[in-house]
Amino acid sequence: MELLKTMQVFCRLAELGSFTQAAEAMQLGRPQVTRTIQELETSLGVRLFHRTTRKVRLTDEGEQFYERAREILGDVAKATSMFRRSNATIRGKLRIDVPAAFAQPKLIENLREFTSLYPEIELALGVTDRTVDLVAEGVDCAIRIGELPDSSLVARRIGEATMVTCAAPSYIRDYGEPKTLEDLHAHYGVRFLSGHNKRPLPWHFLDGSKDQTYVNRHGIIVNESNAYVECGVAGFGILQAPGITLERHLIDGSLVEVLRAYRPRPQPVSVLYPSRSHLAPQVHAFAEWVVEQFPTIYQNWIET
User: What are the tens digits of pLDDT across the range 273-290?
Assistant: First the structure.
């Protein structure tokens, strides 16, 4: 078991590139991580990492050992998962991250049920609209919407989120309701600023079987999901967002769907985590829970 622990520490350091971050992720002291790697290098008779004051990276020998160690840890994880652990024995810190658009009362209430199922898991919830680097920031898993770029992360599809274009009744009263995509040119929009390229995100529409994009040139620009929706409620203009985000406003009438005939294709929703090779029990438990429960939580807005 000591060798497996050493391999886990080695792999975590290889993935994070920092002794401090690896120590935090493994819940160990930094000196212990340093000593573990030194003893491993001495045992193997090779140098596994190039070290600088700010970063560590694998040597050629380290790359070879990393690939083999991941395989071994993956095999061990599969073998040990044959024996189901009771919820009470799964413990440890679990850092998850969700988009601000998904941090709705329904999700928070159901997360309370998750912590009741797993009372020994210490849950740390991050809510942000920026792109989080799971490995560099020590986040265990995240929920994401939209097509995902190729990466080393494991992505499990949860379902597909319905997208809705809408406006406040006050806005429709003042400016009229658009009936076609061409009508959008005469309207204001609430534009969401992408943290990735610092440009407003385009709206998407389905015109028959053809996907259409539209970038509104007029209206307020917002860089936070809750403020984005509230600007729509206040009558700043038309907006487009996941139905998950808009549900309560659509129910109480403070927002009204427009251009229903052009509703865009649903966007994929996924849960992401760094690696299968040595997945912590608490991460596995959350991933299984969210894949099962998320479509139920948002049954009106998630297609499976």
Answer: 886 656 788 988 999 899
Of the spans 11-25, 123-137, 172-186, which averages the highest pLDDT? Answer: 172-186
Outline which parts of the chain fall under CATH 1.10.10.10: 2-80
C-alpha distances (whole Å) from 223 to each of 130, 196, 198, 263 are 9, 11, 9, 23
Q: Is CATH 1.10.3720.10 correct for 2-80?
A: no
pLDDT tens by residue, 40-61: 999 999 999 988 767 888 999 9
| CA–CA dist 269, 287 (Å, integer) | 13
Give the position of tokens 């928070």: 108
Q: Which amino acid is at 122?
A: E
Q: Phi/psi class of residue 222: alpha, beta or left (left: φ > 0; alpha: ψ in -120 to 50)? A: beta
Q: Please give the single-letter amino acid code of residue 142.
A: A
Every domain of the chain with CATH number 3.40.190.290 lies at: 163-265
Could you confirm whether domain 163-265 is CATH 1.10.760.10?
A: no
- Domain 88-160+268-303 adopts which CATH fold? D-Maltodextrin-Binding Protein; domain 2 (3.40.190)
Report pTM. Answer: 0.68
Q: 144-151, long-range: CB within 8 Å, 24+ apart, which pairs?
A: 144/99, 144/269, 144/270, 144/271, 144/272, 145/99, 145/101, 145/102, 145/242, 145/267, 145/268, 145/269, 145/270, 146/267, 146/268, 147/267, 147/268, 148/268, 148/270, 148/272
